[in-house]
Amino acid sequence: QVQLVESGGGLVQAGESLRLSCAASGRTFSSYAMGWFRQAPGKERDFVAAISWRGTRTYYADSVKGRFTISRDNAKNTVYLQMNSLKPEDTAVYYCAAAPAITEYVRSYNYWGQGTQVTVSS
After folding, report:
1. Which residue has the higher pLDDT, 43 or 30?
2. What is the 3-state secondary structure (H, E, C) of the chain?
3. What is the reported pLDDT for 26?
4. pLDDT value at 122 more than 80
5. What value does the mean pLDDT take over residues 101-116?
């Protein structure tokens, strides 16, 4: 069992940066791949980034490549999403999730946080 709590969302202007954190409880955190997803109003939940359990592999959605960076600190049971050069279209609720293996498929993730709102104004 893994419980996830996101933080770090907020309101920023286009071009600015935010860092999201996802704190996990449970002794098995380091055995899970972790992912970030986002969901805008009226839209489906979309893949943003994922990282393997060791942190040696990462995947990104094309829309965020070169701007977002996913990382993890297994000693702190935390995964991060550094978001730079934010755009208004990045506005969404951002969720972290845990899966048995690194993947971009939302249905493969077993555990989810409650989400944190990111709003980017133009």
Report:
1. 43
2. CCEEEEECCEEEECCCCEEEEEEEECCCHHHCEEEEEEECCCCCCEEEEEECCCCCCEEECCCCCCCEEEEEECCCCEEEEEECCCCHHHCEEEEEEEECCCCCCHHHCCEECCCEEEEEEC
3. 79
4. yes
5. 97
